[in-house]
Predict the structure.
Amino acid sequence: SMDMNDPNILYASMWEHQRLPWKIVSGGDGCGLYKSIDGGENWEKLENGLPEEMGKSGISVCRSNPDKVYALIEADREKGESGLYVSYDAGKKWKLVNADHRLTQRSWYYTEVFADPIDDGTVYVLSAPALRSTNGGNSWSTLPAHHGDFHDLWINPTNNTNMAIANDGGAQVSYNNAGTWSDI
């Protein structure tokens, strides 16, 4: 994810994964979130407030407030560490906002998070359902949709009521803040 106000500031998520016939391995030494302030020449591992052992993760910088960064993290469910994290200081410190199981279910397949480009309190998580929070991740509602298994989302950077979503059934477009979707 790139800070759209400074393209030299980049965030990356690293994931070690192996799918065997009898199990799925998700996590390892290199897993984690990383930040570069020099266009990718050098990277710093982000750790303060994040789980020590991580699996798959996704990260999204708020375009309207680049100090606010969301991260969706697969971690130890028994310890309550999987879920949505937020940083208010561009990745220096992190806080778990919500451990709702829907956010990280089948994390090896989903784990997509998107900050609204205009409203930094609105964040989307794509999974079997498409989920939206308008209060910084504290609570979630399911978006109405024609299909399931959501994998990508584009939000118009100048009109956040216009978006396109991709799922296993194809793609749909909304012009009314995901109230209704096209039949594409």
The CA atoms of residues 105 and 112 lie 11 Å apart. The helical segments are 101-104. The chain has a mean pLDDT of 90.
